[in-house]
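Researcher: Next sequence.
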Amino acid sequence: MGRGAPNCLTCVHFHVTWDPKFPRGCRLFEIKTPRLPSQVVLETTGRHCPGFELSPRVKPKERHA
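Model: Next structure:
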C-alpha cells in the first residue's frame, strides 16, 4: 500500500449496511457512514486507516507487457 488513503471498497473490513442514511461500514472500527470509512478515520485521528487489509476477493490487476 502506498502513502495515500486506502480504498475501503477493497478492504476485508468494509461492508454495505441496510441503513440508507449510512450505507457504508467498517467492521473493525464499528462505524457506519454515508462516506467511505477511511475518510472518517482520517478526520478523526489525523492519520490514514491503520486497519486496512486487502480482501482476498480482490483480484490483482493484470499487467500488460
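Model: The first helix runs from residue 37 to 45. The two ends are 23 Å apart (CA to CA).
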